[in-house]
Structure formats: C-alpha cells, structure tokens
Write a structure and sequence with these properties.
The protein is of the alpha/beta class and about 350 residues long. The protein is about 45% helix and about 15% strand. Strand 1 (about 40-45), helix 4 and strand 2 form a beta-alpha-beta unit.
Length: about 350
C-alpha cells in the first residue's frame, strides 16, 4: 500500500497520529494529579465513546480487588457514595452524559477527578476545586486513547489502587513500539493490511474471552468510526449460551474475528474451538496480543485493531477521521430546550 495513495484518502492525517500511539502513552505517564483525601472503597469510570473505552480496558487489565464499574450513561449507579472515586472522562470536555455524571457525583459527595482536554468539564473541575488531568487538545477522541488510558492509570496509582505494575507498563510500551515497526504501510505482507483485506465487504462478528472484552469493543468501535462499517461484538462464555445457535444461519457476508489469549482456561479453549468449527475455518480470523504481561497483550491488540480499521478505511476509499453522523446528532441535541 503506497504512502501517496494513503495520503490522497487520509486527508486529516490519521496515520501520523496512529504512529504516535507509544509516545502518547509515555507522555500520559508523566501527568500528575492530587489524590482525594477520603477513603476509597469503590471506583466508577464514567465516559462515553473513545473516552469511555479507557475504563473498559483498565478494568480488564487490573481485575481490581475493589469494586470497579464503567458508566456509559447520564446517571451513576445508585450505590455511589462518599467512599466512591468517580473518574469523569471526556476528551472534549463537553460530553453531556459525562457532565451529567459529574453533577450526580457532586450531589452524592463522591471523590471526583476529571480527565479532559478542556471544555465544560475543565470549567466544572476548576469551579468546584476538583482535581483534573488536562491532556493535549486537537485530536479525535478515539485517537487520544493513550492519553485517556494512562491518565486513568496515573489516577489509580496515586490512589493506591495500582501498585507494583511499573515493569508491566514498561513492557507494554516496548511492545507497542515493536508492533509499530511492523505496521508501516509499505511493508510487504503487513498483517494489519492482510486482515483488513479479509474483512473488507463483510460484517465482522468479533468474539472475545476475558480479559479481552475492552479490546474487542475497541476494535468494533474503530471499525465503525474509522472504516465506516457495521460490526458486532459478543463475549465468551456468554455467547455459547445463545449466539452459537444461530451461526448456521449467518449471512454469507459475515466474517468472524476471534480474539485469543494465553489466559484461556481449558474450558474456554473448548468453547472457542467449538465455535470456530461452527463458523467454518474459511471465515475465522484469529488475533492474539503480543508480550508476556496482560497489559501488553491488551494494548497490542488494541493498537493492531486500530491499524486494521485504518487500512480498511483506505481500502474502502473513505477518510477515517470524519464522523459526520455523530456530529449531526450533537447538532440535533443542541436544539432541545436546555434544562
């Protein structure tokens, strides 16, 4: 795939931003925030879209010893109280659901920390004296995932929820750098391009076991936003109790992407291999993360999926950056009476 051809389609320079993924991770690790003074017994990570996926990935990685929930809506769970840490994440700072959660957390005297590049969320944090990590502006929110994810890691470390993970973090960034070297568009048999060609003109069904739920959801949403196609995601073992019954009737234009991981139990392996037999080997694509640690495996799958979605956009002749439907919906919402 020639760079000149990519540049003609990728008018907003998505490829350059993708190539900076490892450096963004390192920059975010240098951020600092003052931890809340109250006791923290549980955590809610509130955010939507590209901002919200960071919470899914954090939870998959940590498998935390205290309750940790992601919130993707207007209101926090009913159990949020003064011992709950609420991390309100909105890249733009103007995501209405996240701002609503911020107000909800204020009403319940929860410990609040914001992550944003500016906007209303920064204003609210400053107004009420709430800690804030401010990240660089000017990116599509989905591209800012390294900042959003590792800013959350910084918060977790400052609050004592993450400890003794530095070696795993260093390995993950090293793995990302090594993976980037294989993603150059002009490298022959670039695997991201190969996978993009396989799923072109199909509707990908993405199946994943724990701890790859967040990575699979990220891949699905990147196919939506970058490639401008529909995709769906389901999870093991739950899909074995419903989804497998209808696989024989799956449309011919469906492809199946299986996320795999070294932590699979023997029972999980049986479930995955059984499902693969049902869909047929010709339609099955298998993706595995790289590295030893769980974080490395999760983030390398995320990064690889980002490249697949980018190259699929180029193969389809669509600019990966604009998301016109989302912009149009936001315009519609502004026409509603303000409460």
């Amino acid at each position: 795939m020639k760079r000149g051809h990519i540049k003609e389609i990728d008018r907003w320079g998505m490829i350059e931003k993708l190539m900076r993924f490892p450096e963004m991770c390192e920059e975010a690790l240098s951020f600092r925030v003052e931890p809340p003074k109250q006791k923290i017994s549980r955590v809610v990570l509130a955010g939507m879209g590209g901002s919200g996926i960071a919470g899914d990935l954090i939870r998959d990685w940590l498998d935390p010893s205290i309750p940790m929930e992601t919130c993707k809506g207007y209101l926090l769970p009913n159990w949020v109280d003064g011992e709950t840490l609420v991390v309100a994440t909105s890249y733009s700072g103007n995501t209405e659901e996240t701002l609503s959660c911020f107000s909800d957390a204020m009403r319940r005297d929860a410990a609040l920390i914001g992550i944003t590049s500016g906007g209303k969320l920064e204003e609210e944090c400053n107004k009420f004296g709430k800690p804030l990590i401010k990240i660089p502006p000017g990116l599509p929110p989905r591209v800012a995932l390294p900042y959003l994810f590792f800013s959350t890691v910084v918060i977790m470390k400052e609050c004592g929820i993450v400890s003794r993970r530095d070696e795993e973090i260093r390995e993950s960034i090293k793995t990302l750098r090594e993976l980037r070297e294989k993603m150059d568009p002009e490298i022959e048999n670039n695997r991201a391009v190969v996978v993009a060609k396989k799923i072109k003109d199909t509707i990908p069904f993405i199946y994943a076991p724990p701890p790859l739920y967040g990575a699979a959801k990220r891949f699905k949403t990147q196919l939506n936003e970058n490639s401008k196609i529909q995709a769906k995601v389901e999870f093991f073992p739950e899909l074995c109790h419903n989804e497998i019954v209808g696989l024989g009737a799956a449309p011919k234009n469906v492809s199946f992407v299986f996320f795999r991981d070294v932590e699979e139990s023997e029972k999980m392996k049986v479930r995955i291999e059984f499902t693969r037999k049902l869909v047929g080997e010709k339609k099955a694509i298998e993706l595995r993360g790289e590295g030893k640690g769980r974080l490395s495996r999760i983030l390398s799958l995320v990064y690889f999926g980002d490249f697949v979605s980018f190259y699929l956009a180029i193969l389809r002749g669509v600019d990966p950056t604009p998301v016109e439907e989302i912009s149009e919906l936001k315009t519609e919402l502004t026409r509603l009476p303000q409460s």
